[in-house]
Amino acid sequence: MTDKPITQILQELREGERSSLNELLPLVYDELRRLANSYLNRERSNHTLQPTALVHEAYLRLLGQKEIEWQNRAHFFGVSARLMREVLIEYARGRNRQKRGGEFKTQIALDDAISFANQSQLDVVAVDDALSKLENLDERQARIVEMKFFGGLTVEEIGEVLSISPATVKREWSSAKLLLYKMLND
Amino acid sequence: MNPEQWQKVKNILENALEKSPETRSVYLDEVCGSNENLRREVEKLLEFEQPEADLLEGNAVSAVLENGLVSKNFIGKQIGNYEIISELGTGGMGAVFLAERADGEFKQKTALKLIKRGMDSDAVLRRFINERQILASLEHPNIARLIDGGTTSDDLPFFVMEYVEGTTILEFAEAKNLNLEERLNLFREVCAAVSFAHQNLVIHRDLKPSNVLVTNDGKVKLLDFGIAKLLKSDEENQTATQMQVFTPEYASPEQVRGEKLTTATDIYSLGVILYELLTGNRPYKTESKNIAEIIKSVCETEPLRPSSVVSSQQSAVGKNTKDNGQRTTNDEQKTNPKSKIQNPKSLKGDLDNIILKALRKESERRYSSVEQFTEDIRRHQIGLPVSASKDTLSYRVTKFVARNRIAVASAALVVLVLIGGAVGTTWQAVRAERMRADAELQRTRAERRFENLRKISNSLVSEIERAIRDLPGSLPARKLLLDRAVEQLDALAEDSDGNSELQLELVWAYQNLGWMPDGKLSERRKIYEKAAALTEKILAVEPRNNKARDRLAMIYLDLIVISRMRGDVEYTVEHNQRAVEIVEDILREAPATPEFRDSFWTVYYHYALTQQQLGKGSESVETARKILPTAEQMYQSGSETDGYDFMKPHLTRLQIGYGLSYAGDYQGALKEFETALAECQAEAVKRPDNTILRRNEANIRSQIATTLELSGDAGGALKQIQTALALRERMMADNPKDLDFQITVADSELFLGQMLARQNQLPTVEKRFRRGLEIYQKIAAIDEDRKQVKILAARARTNLGNFLALNGNLSEGLNHLQEAVRFYESIGAATTIDAGLKRHYAETLAQLATALVKNKKGASLTEAAEFYRKSLELWRDLERHNILRASDTAQPGEISRRLSELNETQK
Questions:
Q1: H helices present in A138-165, as ranges
Q2: Model confidence pTM above 0.80
Q3: Count of Cβ atoms closer than 10 Å to residue B329 Cβ
Q4: Between chains, do A117 and B240 touch, taking CB under 8 Å as contact?
Q5: Which burial class, exposed, middle or buried, applies to A4 when counting CB atoms under 10 A from its CB (0-12, 13-18, 19+)?
Q6: What is the distance between the alpha carbons of residues B384 and B360, in angstroms, rounded to a whole number?
Q7: Rounded to an integer, what distance in angstroms lies between the CA atom of residue B244 and that of residue B240?
Q8: Closest residue of B to A55, CA-based?
Q9: Tens digits of residue pLDDT in B118-175
Q10: Which of B10, B211, B241 lies closest to A118 in CB terms?
Q11: SS3 labels along B581-596
């Protein structure tokens, strides 16, 4: 574990010091996992389920709650999205293992009550698999999906991380989504 | 696909997405040319442009959490006290099970709704806890009751509801082949249930045929009342995939836009249901899953007139049958399976207008209440003109009551959302943030939120309170709301040192909370004293803060209201004088300030009442006359919705008349009463829902009755008191928890009994006295601090005892009279400054003496003489202090005569 302050690591990272990433990742990962688990296991009473909130919180903790400049934060978010994805997939797989036994899956007609926007379930592990395939086709596009879906970043934030315009992010996202839906449907 | 292929496809795809559907295929023709594979690939992907649920727009955390529920098998397991029998269905929000109570006490079938993870279960639960009291109190034969709720061992929220076996209202109407009349009747039953809920400040928010069931025996049952509210996402968390708790086909424009909801949203949904029930169609189609399109069609598409829908169906049916070479007859029109209402003429006109009025896009232009909606249908059914009309220009300006009702609805909503959710959490957030006060940014943000919260709490307490305080039957909800408000303000006040404005708002909230007609006097008094202490604290720092001084005076008046019920005249006099002094002080310093006019009027109005209580009739008249110009001025300039300005003139006149009558000027009194009555009735026409106006009318009539009787018109008096009694009975029925209404009924019974006895119409007298006594005793038992009601009970006992003694039941009569005398002695009625109390004691003593004389036993005659003497002393005392009621001037002489008569016979 490194003794360097996080801000310094981020600063180096920004200046192109790739090795700094390796120092940062374990720190962020541990923090994120700890936070995510406490949310997912409902240990926390806060009802915020947004990954951004997790990422923000991890970030604030690691920085001792000091405001730092946006550019660094963008980098941090970019890194966090990847970690967030890992944490969540780890969690989802773990639960699927636990639940294996085949006694469930009652698919009965949908109650027409209440929901129209969210009638089906999204299998996060399947999204992860599809995203891995996308990585082989277009890495930058896959990063965009990762940051948006797993990291909960906004289009603007993603643009900052990748140094591209929000319009480009949107464009990339729109086509990636179609491909992913198709993959999930196959 | 390899990366190069994807780049190509991607490029085309992104360009295609930016084109309109019309130009898209031209574009694809162009770029793909003869490359069929490429084109197929692109088109295949474009099929996913509008997925049923755009789940990827959500986020992974929610998706992970939401996977929790489906994978569980609950059948045969126990949730809370309920055993799961079978699954009734699953849906986006969770699953519904048939369940039975597992503790075996009674096997009641219930529907148990389990909310899955991702429905923000903490917030759902918190809202449930906040609202359960209100929802559980929603007991109506046509509303499926919410029985229970809680969380499972792994924290999933669940609700238990009455299980209803039935079909939807549409299916029922089809299956039973109901005609127009029957459908309208059925629909009005639905309305009655919704209206009941609205009066209890609950909005359904998700009315649709599948929530409106009809059991086999034809009984309407509404499901899921208030549930949509519990499941609603907090506003700040709205994202595309989060639960939209409504059904687009039945949702109102304000609902799809995510705006604040009022009872008008239910009226709208009822309109859609009626439309469908009568025509077989919905007002417009919302097949798209695209939220923007749904919003557009709900908000912009004008629905077709129901009659035109039926007639176009008819012509379509006709056309089809003709094409088939068959004749069309009336019988064959049944071929339309959706509706039996086949005569468009029956819908044309009224029903078209009624339905379209309920479906207006602007909520304020719909029916302002469900009752009005259903009343229009009823009027149509019996051939009366209806309020709904095609001409929007003739649409009447929304009346006060209408506005009030909408305010009520939004009040319920705002309060429950804010208090239950936002205020609580925001407040915690504010505190948490304040604790980390080192960061300047956070501090300013916290302060801004604090400020917002304060505004919310403020408007919540005053506006909402004003909107609901006079509606019939709103007490339980009101208490709940105000309790919470004060809790929240208490928390705010902790950090409010030196913020006198905020402290005054807290004081205001306490004052509102103190006004609870069903509350214990000691509790109410404590609340007011808390308010007074807080105000005094402000004044210790800012002694010239006129707002605080004014407030203190008003709190004293609140305390006087309590002390009157406690029968504590000394306290009343002292605090009334203090309040008068404060207001005079303020006026001396700021004579022209209009905002203190209200205080000026109120303080002297109370003072007039107090003077009356002390027996100072003429002084009371003088005081009341002094504030009459103010009352009228305020009535002229007062806004309709604000305060009680519209009552001030008639209340003032009532008081003037009261004093005049006490002092013996019956004609003058009657003139005042009649003006007051006319004024009160005119206001009541404008505000048919206002309970206080009805109460005032009864009070005025009661005073007219007293005065008419004193001036010799016994018949007229009888009529007035009977009207007053009827009014009071109705108010009592409408407000079962308001003890004051019960007291007024008892008062009227007593008065009517006395009057009938004096007119020698004896049959119902005893019954009336007994009923009065019973009511007083019941209330006295509820709250021992209500000494005034014990005094009233003693008065009822006197009346009953005297009546029985004079009408053949001497022994019971004597018992009552003796009991009354013992009571008066115990409270020191001989030395009270309360003229009325002293007068009644004197009367009771004389009546007991008379009864004892009738008893004719030696010892009792001596006793009788003693009681006459005591009575005479009291009358003389009243006379000496010049506080004898004009109608009693003969009393001292009369008692003195009886006493000497008795002394004669004893000799």
A1: 139-145, 155-162
A2: no
A3: 8
A4: yes
A5: middle
A6: 23
A7: 9
A8: B61
A9: 555 566 666 666 666 667 777 888 988 888 877 776 667 788 888 888 888 998 998 8
A10: B241
A11: HHHHHHHHHCCCCHHH
